[in-house]
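User: Modeling request: complex.
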Amino acid sequence: MSNTTNYIQKIQTKIHENDPHQPEFLQAVDEFLSTIAPFLEDHPEIEQNDLLSVLTEPERLLQFRVPWQDDQGNWQVNRGYRIQFNSALGPYKGGLRFHPSVNLSILKFLAFEQIFKNALTGLPIGGGKGGSDFDPKGKSDQEIMRFCQSFMLELSKYIGPNLDVPAGDIGVGGREIGYLFGMYKRLRSYDAGVLTGKPLEFWGSLTRTEATGYGVVYFVKHLLADQQKNIEGRKALVSGSGNVAIYAIEKLQELGATVISCSDSNGYIIDENGIDLSLLKEIKEVRRERLTAYVNEKASAQYFEGSLWDKEISAELAFPCATQNEIDEEAAKRLVRNGVSVVAEGANMPASLEAANYFVSNGIYYCPGKAANAGGVAVSALEMSQNAQRLQWTFAEVDARLDGIMKEIYQACYDTAVNYGQKNNFVLGANISGFEKVAKAMLRQGLV
Ligand code: GLU
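Assistant: Request completed. Predicted assembly structure:
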């Protein structure tokens, strides 16, 4: 066994021993470690300085109580978190997730991935993530407001435009960011750049809402263009029905694909005529209803309970845009059997380690989330630039920059994979090209 392999195994063992009860975090680190050996061989200074031990330990973990009162006057308590994982390239940057599944393991995996995703954007942002096990489902607007205010009462002590800049994620959109911003402003000062994904009325960026969904489609557009192909006329599967899924569907339709599916946590829709996007937006963004409402209003659509990825259905493109580990190895095999040649992740880590390995070893163009869904955080960084300039750029300008950034990320993944003799292994490409930037900055900043 080479020295490098030994070193990687030593780190892996240590991490598994340190946090045996954090499966999602271990999964994200294992995936990362499984690809970086060739880079370590070329860069002995990483092992010499034991940089992997430093890298895999978050700089700071915050956990706090979030007390709030429901509409009936009952006292409620949730857990709030912020993981400030790595600040080598800039202030900690990453979303807040409000979902009952949220725990330290999930947020550490998300924050760890965010380090490399943010590095890939080429913009000056470090990696962080946060959130709460609060379940926004079924809560009134007033309850959401009270929860957000209480959450920010504590979080405001630890964030700032040059320190840590949260944004949205699952369960946190413009409404929540608005309430969070209001409370931050009351407690501290009008720092527009302390949160991104803000509503446009108070210095959000145009295109931020669309950015993650558009970005994942731009990534695939550049990938196909490299092979003199395009998206037009192709059949696509999309999972999820949140912000990422909706705007991936919008861009796919604009570029001429037929998107036949979307899903929520209970089930999924198949509409062979193509998803009716204005109806979907009305249900999810305006009425805030479940997807079952779609079939009641659309004769061509069918609703099924369970996971979209359990269905035998043919398509060429797959965009998992729901949540982590939605595609297991069985589902990966099913997709490949049914003709999928490109899998692009709008969600974070939607494929299990086994599923991802299956895609890569079967010649599928598998575009991992940390590269393919970086458009959201990239436009967040552009929002920070606009806020610092006290300017608001046009939709067209931000959109063009987003497209350019996604092209560069695709190119970096591709070139790095080719460079290491593993053409089309975008997992390796994304991990090594992201890590390279972070590692170089960390080494130059010394042991901090
Ligand atoms: N939550 C998004 C992500 O997973 C965006 C984070 C941000 O804009 O800071 O990348």
